[in-house]
Amino acid sequence: MRDRHPALIDHIRAAHPYGPTQLAALDRLQDEAVGAPMQPLDAAPDSAAWAAWGANYFGKPWSQAPFLWAESYFYRRLLDAVDFFTQGPWYWIDLFAHLKTAELRDPTLEPELAALEHILDLPPQKRTEVLLLASLWGNRADLGFRIGVEAAVGNHQDAAGLIADDTAPVLSLLHTGPQPIAVIADNAGRELLADLILIDHLLDQHGGTTIELHVKPAPYYVSDATTADVTACLRRLADTPGASAAIAGHLRAAMQDGRLALRTHWFYCAPFSFHRAPADLTQMWEPAALVLLKGDLNYRRLVGDCGWAPTAPFQEAAGYYPAPVVALRTLKSEVVVGIDAKTVQDLEDHDPAWRTNGSRGTVQFLARRM
Length: 370
Ligand SMILES: O=P(O)(O)OC[C@H]1O[C@](O)(CO)[C@@H](O)[C@@H]1O
Prior knowledge:
By secondary structure, the protein is of the alpha/beta class.
């Protein structure tokens, strides 16, 4: 937070032609980010909620609030500073849109999308595995993580990078037949493209499958996906002729006939773990035969952002979750469970930053509670 948040504010200032009001608000947030006491939200529809959630933290340094709480509040304050929820010229202008757009315009994407033809030649079960792992490693393409840090994302996009691997039970569940699935998305851009390609395959594999794709209700953690980002990704897929464009067409058709539905909930931008999810959100998760939970932040919210021993069982940390769940995550923050002791020791010996450098991934699965 000390390094990344000031760098992000500088970046946002430089990227947009804001006027004195927004610049002054960004300056105030910058002062807080480097040590001034945390201030409450200005008048906004959700300021009463934040006033209650933050009663113990306002007036104190940001470092005294829990990390998950403080990061979440920082992104809410950024929206406030740039008048995102204020009627006027900056209303609902995504301050991170230029970063997400740049990722979709990256010329290296074109050959990757063109290569989809080869994936479609694979036998269906192998294709599920390849696309599931593509969705996992897509989580490395995270813009917030890159800003202000030198992420040592290296050569671990292989079996060695996967330090907990429940792929087998997930694949067998996905191959049982049509079922309701939920995907809780993380980042827009490359990661969301990979998620959408997986979704298309799952819909195609068993007619009768339905999928709900959960996105954030507003810009968050720089690159988190919103409805606008789903639209942008569908357009990007459609721009590459062949398999990619065909997938875009299938997904649009699935949205039109209701097999694929977008969902969101205010709680996805709230500063808490999923233990505190309200009933109307847990009711969205419960019917799923499998919830695919993407990314580092969702993982922290699943297991609780606390000091678990890395060897603590995944079941112990996530057993409360109300549906079968697979967490597909690359490690960008300290919290992790379900890693065997020998692997932990090896990682500590050979790559002490393994929990935060984004180079390791986990596929962790929990079946439905009995
Ligand atoms: O996009 P992801 O995978 O959820 O990663 C978000 C993560 O990035 C960070 O903001 C920085 O590493 C973490 O605090 C957060 O959990």
